[in-house]
Amino acid sequence: MISYSNWAVLSVNFLVVLCLSFAGVALSSVLYLVGAKWRFEVRQLAVSLFALFPLAFVLLIVLLVGGEHTFPWIGHVTHDEDVHMPGWYTLPLLATREIIGMLTVIYLSWVFIKRQEVSERSPEDAARFHHIATWIPFFYVLYGTMVAWDFEMTLKPSWHSAIYGMQNIVSNFNMFLAFLVIWIYVLNTRSKLVRQVKEYVYNYMAQMMLAFTLLWMYTFFAQYLTIWYGNIGDELDRVQAMQNGDYSVLWWSMIFLKFVIPFAVLVFPVSRHNTSIIMGVAGAIIVGTLFERYTWVAGINGTGTIPVVWGIGVTAVVAFIGFKLVAAAMRRNHLIRS
Length: 338
What we know:
Blueprint (H helix, E strand, L loop, with lengths): L3 H30 L5 H9 L5 H14 L24 H27 L5 H29 L12 H26 L10 H31 L2 H12 L3 H19 L2 H4 L2 H24 L9 H25 L6
Helix pairs in contact: 1-2, 1-3, 1-5, 1-11, 1-12, 3-4, 4-5, 5-6, 6-7, 6-11, 7-9, 8-9, 9-11
């Protein structure tokens, strides 16, 4: 019997893989829509993470089959109970919306990638690409909100927040930016890329990480202040359980890694032009986000052990499979040297 604190590691791995799968397409879409010229440096690398979707889908099925291991409320919520959105808490409905949602974003991402490849071939192709690009940010936010609700916010049925979906999306996207800049740096320095990414991209990525760091803290504190100042029953209990319970070290480390370090360092222009410093900050953001995801999933009651060995083992296996999938996709698209 796997304990909930151990099983939560699998949920966190799913959420991270899913974020990386779709965020690359979302970034390429947004950079195109705002007319960013540097999109040509990163767009093919970013959308290569689409190759992670099969892994995300398998993890989703495992979590859904796991049922009560994944969702503690199964068997403990009745329709006459005073909970937020009582109709939301049925496993068949949850499984249906999650599977349909993922298949939808997989299809949209595939269409986006195919149209991006030929977007400069003719005015007609450019128009078709523009059409799909305008839909991607909408579905990224909509789907991301649903996943945040199902796998984090509503794990405790009496707990809800109007801003949590946005906080979750902002946090995960910043983790993706941090991952992307480290990934580009590794490929560049090891001369793996067929076409090297220009050095100025690191500065642009650092500016985006700083912006999303500030936005994350804004949404985080807006939620926290509302719950704390309003002294809202179960909602305050969950937050205090996470920050003062068995996972308190992860909670406070999360704030230090995701806000204090990125803000204190990247606020200075000189830091945003230093590649080594950018890599260090990006690493802090990634680790902080992993802590954040695990605390929200496993720390709903503030109790449980931190499964260090299990966490490292499961994450290593998932990371290895993901690496193989993305590397194979990049070789097929002639982005890296054989």
